[in-house]
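[Q] Does anyone have a clean structure-token version of this?
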Amino acid sequence: MSKKNGDLLNILTDLIKQARAAGADAADAIVVNGRSVSVTWRMGKLEHLNGSEGADIGLRVLKGKRQAIVSSADRSPTALKELVERAVAMARTVPEDPFVGLADPDQLTKYMPDLDICDSTELTAEDLIKKVKEAEAVARGVKGITNSEGASAGWGLTEVAVAASNGFARAYRTSGASLSVSVIAGTAAKGMETDYDYTSAVYAEDLADPADIGRGAATRALAKLGAKKVKSQRVPVIFDPRVSRGLVSHLLGAINGSSIARKTSFLKDSLHHEVFGPHVTIIEDPHRDRGMRSKPCDAEGLANRRRQLVDNGMLTTWIMDLRTSRQLGLESTGHASRGTGSAPSPSATNVFMAGGPFTPKGLMSGIKDGFYVTDLFGQGVNTVTGDYSRGAVGFWIKNGERTFPVNEITIAGNLKDMFKRLTPASDLEFRYGIDAPTVRIDGMTIAGA
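[A] Here you go.
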């Protein structure tokens, strides 16, 4: 453990001692330090340059079955003393919650993996400016690109430390970098379209080349020019990886322990049942080196691990922290996550849908008429019923080939049916922390002209 991590844990253990001395039965605390720099470049000029440092501390105290959470950006002895007094006073007055409580000491993880999730290279403002300048210049240099919405890049380092009165204490550091550019193609007289490309990584060296990001944004924008409407019909729909990952997010929301405990999920009765076809497997890997959301254990000190959330179509688990597992009469799955001003809640990390045997071209090959989705908008997803309706843009598929661009349509279905009819392609890439390959879903409804 580094001296810096040790210092953070000492602050937390002292804060917990103060809380116990003030009357708390139990307590835990978290500190988050952050340092970041970001730049925005537009039309060949620097628009914004921001640097920030943050340091927040949060304390949760428990008095019987009552809990209170307070946070502060001030770590002075006086401020921390007031933080403790406020938290304990609040915990005496809030309603009881029969499911709150820290982990028992024997539930705490005995193994803390040393993850490769922090880049020792710090990107400076000059480094970021070089990247955005090149990305936008390449994009604007493509024939047909007429304007730019700008290029943005950022770098950040985060230090997290958590400690609790049950003996749990851990600290770790993470880093991240990103680059994006958005440009406009066409003219007001003949029609205009905009699109973007994006890259992010834990290590700066893993970012895509700025020139490739610029060309990608320009190519996408130009391809959307001349978009048409299509008539309403039922057809196979192909989801580009940029949007297919949203389907995995909908699954994660539906199997979150909070939704299951409230009985507000369309999958509430689906544990250990087939929710996808037998060719679909969805994996969580919180210990993946250089993973965008990797962490050594959960926020309550319980072990997390690689697991198949969906195993050959079968749903194997809920996503639970201690509170939701107690509500459901089950064991926590080590999915607790929290911030400085909030109680732990369930959240998954580094989730991906495994690739299938078909290439994206192979998925399209048998489609006489269909739709290839590149972007979705609107929030038309009912998490209670699974009803799904989103605005979409993309390309029409004719005889297995992408043809003309399409806009101003809606795609609709029910997630239960969509999951069962989903077929993944073989082009999985790890880009976001929640990832999926190209997927095909047959029999979706398109509402168009």
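[Q] Thanks! Anything notable?
[A] The radius of gyration is 24 Å.
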